[in-house]
Protein backbone atom coordinates (compact mmCIF):
# COMPACT_ATOMS: atom_id res chain seq x y z
CA UNK A 1 0.00 0.00 0.00
CA UNK A 2 1.35 3.40 -0.95
CA UNK A 3 1.49 6.30 1.48
CA UNK A 4 -1.22 8.05 -0.55
CA UNK A 5 -3.51 5.01 -0.28
CA UNK A 6 -2.83 4.90 3.43
CA UNK A 7 -3.84 8.56 3.81
CA UNK A 8 -6.95 8.06 1.65
CA UNK A 9 -8.20 5.44 4.14
CA UNK A 10 -8.60 8.32 6.60
CA UNK A 11 -11.01 10.13 4.30
CA UNK A 12 -13.98 8.11 5.49
CA UNK A 13 -16.55 6.46 3.25
CA UNK A 14 -19.87 6.50 5.04
CA UNK A 15 -22.39 9.29 5.38
CA UNK A 16 -23.03 10.88 8.73
CA UNK A 17 -25.78 9.12 10.69
CA UNK A 18 -29.18 10.81 10.81
CA UNK A 19 -30.18 12.99 13.75
CA UNK A 20 -32.54 11.76 16.44
CA UNK A 21 -35.99 13.10 17.23
CA UNK A 22 -36.70 15.17 20.32
CA UNK A 23 -38.39 12.25 22.09
CA UNK A 24 -35.15 10.29 21.96
CA UNK A 25 -33.25 13.34 23.21
CA UNK A 26 -35.73 13.70 26.09
CA UNK A 27 -35.51 10.06 27.22
CA UNK A 28 -31.71 10.07 26.95
CA UNK A 29 -31.58 13.30 28.96
CA UNK A 30 -34.00 12.05 31.61
CA UNK A 31 -32.24 8.72 32.10
CA UNK A 32 -28.78 10.22 32.32
CA UNK A 33 -29.98 12.98 34.69
CA UNK A 34 -31.55 10.42 37.03
CA UNK A 35 -28.71 7.88 36.77
CA UNK A 36 -25.83 10.29 37.29
CA UNK A 37 -27.90 12.29 39.78
CA UNK A 38 -28.50 9.16 41.87
CA UNK A 39 -24.81 8.20 41.79
CA UNK A 40 -23.88 11.79 42.73
CA UNK A 41 -26.40 11.86 45.56
CA UNK A 42 -25.16 8.56 46.98
CA UNK A 43 -21.58 9.77 46.68
CA UNK A 44 -22.14 13.13 48.39
CA UNK A 45 -24.45 11.79 51.09
CA UNK A 46 -22.86 8.48 52.05
CA UNK A 47 -19.35 8.18 50.64
CA UNK A 48 -17.70 11.61 50.69
CA UNK A 49 -18.56 12.29 54.38
CA UNK A 50 -16.60 9.12 55.15
CA UNK A 51 -13.72 10.24 52.93
CA UNK A 52 -14.57 7.56 50.36
CA UNK A 53 -15.09 7.73 46.61
CA UNK A 54 -18.18 6.62 44.71
CA UNK A 55 -18.59 8.86 41.66
CA UNK A 56 -16.01 8.19 38.93
CA UNK A 57 -15.69 9.84 35.54
CA UNK A 58 -16.25 6.71 33.51
CA UNK A 59 -19.90 6.68 34.65
CA UNK A 60 -20.51 9.71 32.44
CA UNK A 61 -19.45 7.77 29.37
CA UNK A 62 -21.51 4.76 30.47
CA UNK A 63 -24.55 7.03 30.77
CA UNK A 64 -24.07 8.12 27.15
CA UNK A 65 -24.21 4.48 26.07
CA UNK A 66 -27.02 3.12 28.28
CA UNK A 67 -29.30 6.13 27.74
CA UNK A 68 -28.21 7.45 24.34
CA UNK A 69 -27.12 4.35 22.39
CA UNK A 70 -29.35 1.72 23.94
CA UNK A 71 -29.23 -0.67 20.99
CA UNK A 72 -25.43 -0.75 20.88
CA UNK A 73 -23.82 -4.01 21.96
CA UNK A 74 -21.49 -1.83 24.06
CA UNK A 75 -24.48 -0.63 26.14
CA UNK A 76 -25.94 -4.00 27.09
CA UNK A 77 -25.98 -5.16 30.75
CA UNK A 78 -23.25 -7.77 30.37
CA UNK A 79 -20.95 -5.17 28.84
CA UNK A 80 -21.85 -2.43 31.30
CA UNK A 81 -21.28 -4.47 34.46
CA UNK A 82 -18.57 -6.81 33.19
CA UNK A 83 -16.63 -4.03 31.48
CA UNK A 84 -16.44 -1.92 34.62
CA UNK A 85 -15.65 -4.75 37.05
CA UNK A 86 -13.05 -6.47 34.86
CA UNK A 87 -11.39 -3.17 34.01
CA UNK A 88 -11.38 -2.11 37.64
CA UNK A 89 -9.66 -5.34 38.70
CA UNK A 90 -7.05 -5.01 35.97
CA UNK A 91 -6.45 -1.32 36.71
CA UNK A 92 -5.88 -2.00 40.41
CA UNK A 93 -3.56 -4.93 39.65
CA UNK A 94 -1.52 -2.81 37.25
CA UNK A 95 -1.24 0.00 39.79
CA UNK A 96 -0.18 -2.40 42.53
CA UNK A 97 2.39 -4.10 40.30
CA UNK A 98 3.75 -1.10 38.38
CA UNK A 99 2.46 1.97 40.23
CA UNK A 100 5.95 3.35 40.67
CA UNK A 101 6.19 3.68 36.90
CA UNK A 102 3.01 5.56 36.13
CA UNK A 103 3.32 5.53 32.33
CA UNK A 104 3.74 1.75 32.30
CA UNK A 105 0.98 1.13 34.80
CA UNK A 106 -1.45 3.36 32.88
CA UNK A 107 -0.60 1.86 29.48
CA UNK A 108 -0.90 -1.72 30.72
CA UNK A 109 -4.14 -1.06 32.63
CA UNK A 110 -5.94 0.28 29.57
CA UNK A 111 -4.49 -2.12 27.01
CA UNK A 112 -4.99 -5.22 29.17
CA UNK A 113 -8.55 -4.30 30.05
CA UNK A 114 -9.36 -3.91 26.34
CA UNK A 115 -7.96 -7.37 25.67
CA UNK A 116 -9.82 -8.85 28.67
CA UNK A 117 -13.11 -7.24 27.65
CA UNK A 118 -12.73 -8.63 24.13
CA UNK A 119 -11.99 -12.12 25.47
CA UNK A 120 -14.93 -12.04 27.91
CA UNK A 121 -17.32 -10.39 25.42
CA UNK A 122 -17.84 -7.44 27.78
CA UNK A 123 -16.41 -4.61 25.66
CA UNK A 124 -17.58 -1.33 27.21
CA UNK A 125 -15.42 1.67 26.26
CA UNK A 126 -15.86 3.45 29.62
CA UNK A 127 -14.11 0.42 31.11
CA UNK A 128 -10.87 1.83 29.71
CA UNK A 129 -11.45 4.93 31.83
CA UNK A 130 -12.29 2.79 34.86
CA UNK A 131 -8.94 1.01 34.52
CA UNK A 132 -7.08 4.28 34.02
CA UNK A 133 -8.78 5.88 37.04
CA UNK A 134 -7.55 2.96 39.15
CA UNK A 135 -4.02 4.04 38.24
CA UNK A 136 -4.24 7.84 38.24
CA UNK A 137 -7.18 8.34 40.62
CA UNK A 138 -5.22 9.44 43.65
CA UNK A 139 -4.85 8.18 47.18
CA UNK A 140 -8.57 7.72 47.91
CA UNK A 141 -8.89 5.41 44.92
CA UNK A 142 -5.65 3.59 45.68
CA UNK A 143 -6.73 3.03 49.30
CA UNK A 144 -9.72 1.03 48.07
CA UNK A 145 -7.48 -1.62 46.51
CA UNK A 146 -9.46 -4.33 44.71
CA UNK A 147 -12.68 -3.12 46.36
CA UNK A 148 -12.56 -0.31 43.75
CA UNK A 149 -13.68 -2.80 41.08
CA UNK A 150 -16.87 -3.52 43.03
CA UNK A 151 -17.51 -0.21 44.83
CA UNK A 152 -17.55 2.24 43.13
CA UNK A 153 -17.14 0.65 39.66
CA UNK A 154 -19.50 -2.33 39.87
CA UNK A 155 -22.12 -0.78 42.16
CA UNK A 156 -22.24 2.44 40.14
CA UNK A 157 -22.72 0.41 36.95
CA UNK A 158 -25.54 -1.53 38.64
CA UNK A 159 -27.27 1.72 39.61
CA UNK A 160 -27.00 2.98 36.02
CA UNK A 161 -28.38 -0.35 34.80
CA UNK A 162 -31.33 -0.17 37.22
CA UNK A 163 -32.21 3.35 36.08
CA UNK A 164 -31.72 2.37 32.41
CA UNK A 165 -34.14 -0.54 32.78
CA UNK A 166 -36.81 1.73 34.24
CA UNK A 167 -36.42 4.88 32.14
CA UNK A 168 -35.61 3.32 28.77
CA UNK A 169 -38.74 1.18 28.96
CA UNK A 170 -41.13 4.00 29.92
CA UNK A 171 -41.23 5.15 26.31
CA UNK A 172 -43.39 3.17 23.90
CA UNK A 173 -40.66 3.46 21.26
CA UNK A 174 -37.67 2.35 23.34
CA UNK A 175 -36.72 -1.08 24.61
CA UNK A 176 -33.74 -1.95 26.80
CA UNK A 177 -31.86 -4.23 26.94
CA UNK A 178 -31.45 -5.89 23.59
CA UNK A 179 -30.10 -8.97 25.43
CA UNK A 180 -28.69 -9.88 28.83
CA UNK A 181 -25.99 -12.39 27.95
In short:
With about 180 residues, the chain is an all-alpha fold. It contains 8 helices and no strands.
Descriptive terms for the model:
181 residues, 8 helices
Report the strand count: 0
Q: Output the number of helix runs.
A: 8
Strand/helix succession:
HHHHHHHH
Taken as a percent bin, the fraction of beta residues is under 5%
Categorize the overall geometry.
flat
Question: What can you tell me about this protein's structure?
Answer:
The protein has about 180 residues and is mainly alpha-helical. The chain contains eight helices and no strands. It has one domain (about 20-170). It has helices at about 5-10, 20-45, 60-70, 75-100, 100-120, 125-135, 140-145, 150-170. Helix 3 (about 60-70) packs antiparallel against helix 6 and helix 5 packs antiparallel against helix 6. The radius of gyration is 18 Å and the shape is flat. About 40% of the residues are buried.
Q: How is the topology of this model organized?
A:
Elements: H1 3-8, H2 22-47, H3 58-68, H4 77-98, H5 102-120, H6 126-136, H7 139-144, H8 150-168
Helix pairs in contact: 2-3, 2-8, 3-6, 3-8, 4-5, 4-6, 4-8, 5-6
Amino acid sequence: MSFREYLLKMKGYAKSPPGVNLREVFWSWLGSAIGIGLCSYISSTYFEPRDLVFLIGSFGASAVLVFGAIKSPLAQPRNLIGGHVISGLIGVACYQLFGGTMWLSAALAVSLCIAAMFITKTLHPPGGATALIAVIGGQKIHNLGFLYAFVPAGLGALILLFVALIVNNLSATRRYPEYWM
